[in-house]
C-alpha cells in the first residue's frame, strides 16, 4: 500500500511514532519540589556536647533527595541560620548550568532570613551523591544529606534489585561549635575532629552517644549500602563484622564488582556496596575507623553502628572487626588501583559506559597542581601552586556574565603547572580548552590524605603513587579501564592523575574536600568557555539570579511588587521543559494539519 493511500489511522500512528520520543522524555523526567528550612539546633547534642547542629527541616543529616535520572529538582532553601549559606551538590554535574552549583565562585550567598530556589537536573546521571553547605565552614556543623539518582525503568543496573537501600553518611565531628572552630582557623591552634558519626549518631556502646545507628535486615536478603564520607578531615576504613562487601558503584560509575573485607572512603567520596545477610540471625558491628590514626577500638573517633537481623535477640559481641593497619598506605593504594570501570555495563543512558574510551585520547594540556601550606601575611594558609585562593566579593560567574571577568579576576594569571615563586593570595582561575582532553596531576605536599574534587564532571583516575610525579610516571597509568568519579584521594607526599574532557562549559570549582584546607585557600576555578551563546550549550542565568558584590540589585520601588514569573521580567528565562513542550505541540499541530490535508 502506497503511503499516499494510507488511512488517517495509519497516519495518526505514524504521527505518534514520530512524536513518541518527545513524550517519553517529557514524561520520564519528573519534577521534585522541596522546601528546606535550615537552622541551628542546640538540643540534638549527638555526643552530649552543647553545640549547634545544622539541621534541614529539623533533620540531621538532612532529608534524602530521591531522584531518578533526568529529574528536575527544585529546592527552595530558607536560611534560618545567622550565617550566609549556599548548598552544593557533590557529584551532580549541573550540565551546562554552573549557575546552580552553589559554591562561592558561582552563586551569591543566601543571606540569613532569606530564601532562594535551586533548579537543577540530574542529567544523564545515576548513582550515589550527597549535598552539603559549601561556605563559611558550615559543613563542620552538619547540613549535609544524601542524594540518590535512581535508574530509569528502561535502564537495567548490573545487579539484582536489592531488598532495600540504606544511606550511610559517615564523617568526623568536632565537639565544639563550628563557629568556634572557624574563628580559630586563623590562628595555628586548630584542633582535630574528635568523633566519627554515622548518620549523625555517635558510636554504639559509647555512653556519650545520644543514640546509635541500626540497620535492620532479613536473613538471606541482599541490601545496597550507599556510603559517603561527609566529614571534614579523616579518611575512614569501613567494614561489617562477619560480612563481605561487594563494591558496585563509585560516584555514579559502575565498577567491576569486587568482594572486599573493608573499604577505604576518603573525604567527599561516595560508594555503593552490596551486603548479603548470610550469617546467623544475630547483631553485628558496623565500623568506620580513621586512617592514619592510632585510634583504639573504644576511641570516639571510631564510628560504630549495628547490623540487626530480624528477630535477633543477641547483641553484637566480641571485639570490633579489625581492619587493615591504618598506617598501611600501600593497602589503601592497592585497593584504589583495583577499583576499575566496568566497560561493558550500561550507564545512565542506554549505552555501555566504555563508549568513553580514554586509551587513545590526545591530551591537549597538563595541569600540575601542588598542594602545600604557606604563611602569608603572618597567617597560615593552604595553597595550590603557592597561590592561596582569595574569595572575591563578586562570584566569578557573575563577573563573567556581566563584564567578562573584568574587575574580579584575570584568567590564567597564575601558572597551571608550576608553583608561583612566592606564596600569595589570589583569585586563581585557570582556563581549560572546551572539548580538549586535559590531564590533571595533583600533588600533595601535606602530611594528611588530601582529596580533590572537580565540580561539573566525572574525571578518569588514571594513576596514583607515592613520591614525586614526573613525566615517566605516566608509564604506570591505567588507560584501559580507569574509573570515572568526581573525587580522588592524594596520599601524603604522593600524587594522583586524572583525565578530564571539558565538554561542560561553565565556571567549575576544583577544590580540596578537606574542609580546613579548602576554607584556607586550597582551591581554584576552571573556566571552560564555549563562544557559542546558544542556550542549548551553556544556560543563561536563572530568573531568580541573586546579585551581590559589584552587581547590586536596583533598589526596588517600595510598594509595587512585580507579579512573580511575569514574562516581561524574564529577561534570562529559559525553560528546557517549556521549549520541549512547545516543540512537541508545534510538531503535533503540523502533523495533524498534514493528515487533514491528505
Ligand atoms: C525512591 O524513588 C524510587 C523510584 O521512584 C522508589 O522506588 C523508592 O521507593 C524511593 N525511595 C524512597 C526512600 O523514597
Ligand atoms: C521564596 O519562597 C517563596 C515561597 O515561600 C517562593 O514563592 C519564592 O519564589 C522564593 N524565592 C526565591 C528567590 O526562590
Ligand atoms: C561513661 O564512660 C566512661 C568510661 O567508660 C566513664 O568514665 C563515665 O563515668 C561514663 N559516664 C556516664 C555518664 O556513665
Ligand atoms: C529495627 O528493628 C528494631 C527491633 O526489632 C525495631 O525496634 C526498629 O523499629 C526497626 N527499625 C526500623 C527502621 O525498621
Ligand atoms: C560488567 O557488567 C556486565 C554487564 O552488566 C556484567 O555482566 C559483568 O559481570 C560485569 N563485570 C564485572 C567484573 O562486574
Ligand atoms: C601511632 O603508632 C605508631 C606505632 O606505634 C607510632 O609510631 C606513631 O607515632 C603513632 N602516631 C600517632 C599519631 O600517635
Ligand atoms: C579502651 O581499649 C583499650 C585497649 O583496646 C583498653 O586498654 C582500655 O581500658 C579501654 N578503655 C575503656 C574506657 O574502655
Ligand atoms: C520473626 O518472627 C516473626 C514472629 O515470630 C515471624 O513471623 C517471622 O517469620 C520471623 N522472621 C524471620 C526472618 O525469621
Ligand atoms: C555473640 O555471642 C553469642 C553467644 O553468646 C554467639 O552465638 C554469637 O555468634 C556471637 N555473635 C558474634 C557476632 O560473634
Ligand atoms: C579502547 O580503545 C583502544 C584503541 O584506541 C583499544 O585498543 C581498546 O581495546 C579499547 N578498549 C575497550 C574497552 O574497548
Ligand atoms: C589512535 O589514535 C591515533 C592518532 O590519533 C590514530 O591514528 C589511531 O587510528 C587511533 N587508534 C584507534 C584504535 O582508534
Ligand atoms: C573575555 O575574556 C577572555 C579571557 O580573558 C578573552 O580572551 C576574550 O577576548 C574576552 N572577550 C571579550 C568580548 O572581551
Automatic annotation (TrEMBL):
Tagged with keyword Signal: yes
Signal peptide stretch: 1-29
Domain annotation Plastocyanin-like: ranges: 49-152, 168-312, 405-531
UniProt-annotated stretches for the region Disordered: 537-565
Biased composition annotated in UniProt, kind: Pro residues: 553-565
GO molecular function, one term: copper ion binding
SUPFAM superfamilies found in the cross-reference section: Cupredoxins
InterPro entries noted in UniProt: Cu-oxidase-like_N (IPR011707), Cu-oxidase_2nd (IPR001117), Cu-oxidase_C (IPR011706), Cu-oxidase_fam (IPR045087), Cupredoxin (IPR008972)
Keywords in alphabetical order: Glycoprotein, Signal
Example of a GO cellular component annotation carried by this entry: plasma membrane
Family note: Belongs to the multicopper oxidase family.
Protein name as annotated: Monocopper oxidase-like protein SKU5
Organism: Glycine max (Soybean)
Gene it is expressed from: LOC100798339
Amino acid at each position: 500500500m502506497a503511503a499516499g493511500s494510507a488511512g488517517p489511522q495509519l497516519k495518526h500512528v505514524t504521527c505518534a511514532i514520530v512524536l513518541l520520543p518527545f513524550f517519553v522524555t517529557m514524561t520520564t523526567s519528573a519534577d521534585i519540589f522541596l522546601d528546606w528550612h535550615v537552622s541551628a539546633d542546640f538540643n540534638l547534642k549527638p555526643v552530649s556536647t552543647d553545640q549547634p547542629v545544622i539541621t534541614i527541616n529539623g533533620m540531621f543529616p538532612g532529608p534524602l533527595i530521591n531522584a531518578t535520572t533526568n529529574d528536575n529538582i527544585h529546592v527552595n532553601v530558607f536560611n534560618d541560620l545567622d550565617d550566609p549559606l549556599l548548598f552544593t551538590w557533590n557529584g551532580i554535574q549541573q550540565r551546562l548550568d554552573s549557575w546552580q552549583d552553589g559554591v562561592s565562585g558561582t552563586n551569591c550567598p543566601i543571606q540569613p532570613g532569606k530564601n532562594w530556589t535551586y533548579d537543577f537536573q540530574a542529567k544523564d546521571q545515576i548513582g550515589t551523591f550527597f549535598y552539603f553547605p559549601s561556605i563559611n565552614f558550615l559543613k563542620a556543623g552538619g547540613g549535609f544529606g544524601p542524594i540518590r539518582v535512581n535508574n530509569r525503568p528502561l535502564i537495567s543496573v548490573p545487579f539484582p534489585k536489592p531488598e532495600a537501600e540504606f544511606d550511610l553518611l559517615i564523617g568526623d565531628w568536632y565537639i565544639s561549635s563550628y563557629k568556634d572552630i572557624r574563628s580559630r582557623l586563623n590562628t595555628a591552634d586548630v584542633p582535630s575532629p574528635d568523633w566519627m558519626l554515622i548518620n549523625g549518631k555517635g558510636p554504639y556502646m559509647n555512653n556519650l552517644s545520644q543514640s546509635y545507628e541500626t540497620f535492620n535486615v532479613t536473613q538471606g536478603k541482599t541490601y545496597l549500602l550507599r556510603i559517603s564520607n561527609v566529614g571534614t578531615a579523616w579518611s575512614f576504613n569501613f567494614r561489617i563484622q562477619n560480612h563481605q562487601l561487594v563494591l558496585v558503584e563509585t560516584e555514579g560509575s559502575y565498577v567491576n564488582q569486587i568482594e572486599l573485607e573493608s573499604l577505604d572512603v576518603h573525604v567527599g567520596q561516595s560508594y555503593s556496596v552490596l551486603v548479603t545477610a548470610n550469617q546467623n540471625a544475630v547483631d553485628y558491628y558496623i565500623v568506620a575507623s580513621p586512617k592514619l590514626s592510632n585510634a583504639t577500638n573504644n576511641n570516639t573517633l571510631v564510628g560504630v553502628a549495628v547490623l540487626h537481623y530480624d528477630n535477633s535477640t543477641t547483641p553484637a559481641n566480641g571485639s570490633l572487626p579489625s581492619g587493615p593497619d591504618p598506617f598501611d598506605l600501600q593497602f589503601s593504594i592497592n585497593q584504589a588501583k583495583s577499583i576499575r570501570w566496568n566497560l561493558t555495563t550500561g550507564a545512565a543512558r542506554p549505552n555501555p559506559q566504555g563508549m568513553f574510551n580514554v586509551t587513545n585520547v590526545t591530551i591537549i594540556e597538563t595541569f600540575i597542581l601542588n598542594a602545600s601550606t604557606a604563611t602569608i601575611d603572618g597567617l597560615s594558609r593552604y595553597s595550590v601552586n603557592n597561590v592561596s585562593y582569595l574569595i572575591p566579593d563578586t562570584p566569578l560567574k557573575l563577573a563573567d556574565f556581566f563584564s567578562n571577568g573584568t574587575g574580579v579576576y584575570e584568567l590564567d594569571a597564575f601558572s597551571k603547572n608550576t608553583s608561583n615563586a612566592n606564596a600569595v593570595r589570589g583569585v586563581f582561575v585557570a582556563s581549560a580548552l572546551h572539548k580538549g582532553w586535559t590531564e590533571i596531576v595533583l600533588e600533595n605536599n601535606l602530611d594528611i590524605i588530601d582529596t580533590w574534587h572537580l565540580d561539573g564532571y566525572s574525571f578518569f583516575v588514571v594513576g596514583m603513587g607515592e613520591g614525586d610525579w614526573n613525566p615517566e610516571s605516566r608509564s604506570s597509568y591505567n588507560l584501559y579501564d580507569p574509573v570515572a568519579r568526581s573525587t580522588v584521594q592524594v596520599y601524603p607526599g604522593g600524587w594522583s592523575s586524572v583525565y578530564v574532557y571539558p565538554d561542560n562549559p561553565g565556571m567549575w570549582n576544583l577544590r580540596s574536600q578537606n574542609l580546613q584546607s579548602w576554607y584556607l585557600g586550597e582551591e581554584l576555578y576552571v573556566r571552560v568557555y564555549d563562544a557559542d551563546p546558544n542556550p542549548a550549550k551553556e544556560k543563561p542565568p536563572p530568573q531568580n539570579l541573586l546579585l551581590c558584590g559589584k552587581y547590586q540589585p536596583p533598589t526596588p520601588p517600595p510598594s509595587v511588587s512585580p507579579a512573580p514569573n511575569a514574562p516581561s521580567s524574564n529577561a534570562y528565562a529559559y525553560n528546557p521543559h517549556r521549549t520541549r513542550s512547545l516543540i512537541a505541540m508545534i510538531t503535533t499541530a503540523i502533523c495533524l494539519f498534514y493528515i487533514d490535508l491528505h
